[in-house]
Amino acid sequence: MTSSLYLNVGCGKVKIPGFVNIDREPGGDIQCDVTQGLPYSDNSVDGIYSGNFIERLKQSEIISFFRECRRVLKPGGRVRIATQDLDTIISQYMENKWRQPWLKKYGYDWIQNRAEYINISLREWGHSWVVNEEELTRLANWAGLENPCRTNINESIDSRLSNLETRTESTLIMEYSKSVPSSIDEPLVSIVIPAYRADFLAPCLASAISQTYKKIEILVLDDSKSDEVRRITQDFILRDSRVTYIKNQEPLGEAANLTKGIQLANGELIKPLYDDDFILPDTVKRLLVAFRSTPDARLAVVRRKPIDENGELLHGVQMPQITSESSRLRGTDIINHLLTTGVNFLGEPTCMLFNRRDALAINEQNVMSLFGYLCEGAGDVCLAIHLLSRGDLAYVDGYLARFRIHSNQTTQQKNLYTIGMNTWKYLREQGVRLGLVRP
């Protein structure tokens, strides 16, 4: 029987029997700076406990730490965090109930007023980023941890994570888990087409229904003002019952229309397909195989070739790429490369496949926004950042998508270049702030 592996991170002087006790200072079983990573391989750890440690990290370091927890945890493994609760601190300050037992316990009975109390609570002991439940869960979500659960002190559904707290002032105790891969052999894949132009919709739809992977649904979300999208889609509905037509009452725009399609989809996996592009017959199958065979993948992409208005290959146009072979690539490395170079080598949404659950976990008004900022001109990059912050990339070396370049597409609008450059600048700034762009 294989023994289980549990970590006690930031143990200080409190070592937990049966755990590997880790701290930056001497005294634990392992001495290391966990902000630089955990010394364990992927999917090797059963559970992680960290008490009175997370508040000493910067915001970006908390995300990085959570990302490392997600990496080393086995599917279904849990991480338990015990820390001070910012909401409790503020409440005690506002209600003038700051005279807490721990003040005398730790030698702070000299404090005379609530201003001293709140400053000590937020700044002493090397505190850097004190959190509440909302903030801690948001940071865990960014790192790809799921199923937030607030627990009582010393209680856990994992018996190994019970009865570990030693400080009653750690009133915020949260647990998160690593997702368990789907066991469905042939999951439903939703091909989402956010349509606003009918010019090339017929070959787009024809490529969707011609996929060799048959367990698909095709959602056409009509964002146009004319009747052409509906008419063309209805012709395909008569040929294939997997096609569904949805008319938006008011135009939503690219980002909101794609998001609506993801929300309405029934599939476990989402395959975006834009109305002026098309995909080759094996595209969904190849993406699905790569996605499911890549541990911790949150995004799979294929390579694309540019075509003109007549569907002819544009041999003189080079589409950037990151590698020439199918690979598993670390998500944070890809984000760093994207934002450092300012080049979208992953491709447009037509190149992508991802888990619907991950897209729904993006806590924004749409999947192409970052902290409330609509990333016009680089919405596909924004979507990729959300997904790759939560996991890795499955890269498929195959020119399976066709990206149409024509005079009427949105990317050819003159003012979009300036908008796009501003978006890239914003994305880089946020990447630096979150520690996703290395100096």
Taking the alpha carbons of the first and last residues, their distance comes to 45 Å
Could you list the spans in which at least 5 consecutive residues all have pLDDT below 50?
Answer: none
- Please state the overall shape, judged from the principal axes of the Cα atoms: elongated
Structural class: alpha/beta
Mean pLDDT: 94
Tell me the Rg in angstroms.
25 Å
Main pleated sheet? 9 strands, mixed
What proportion of the residues form beta strands (DSSP E)? 15-25%
Number of strands: 18
Q: What helical percentage do the residues reach?
A: 25-40%
Q: Tally the helices: what do you get?
A: 13
Word description of this protein:
This protein is of the alpha/beta class. Strands 8, 9, 10, 11, 12, 13, 14, 15 and 18 form a nine-stranded mixed β-sheet that branches. The protein has a seven-stranded mixed β-sheet with strand order 3-2-1-4-5-7-6. A two-stranded antiparallel ribbon has the order 16-17. Strand 16 and strand 17 form a beta hairpin. Helix 2 packs antiparallel against helix 4.
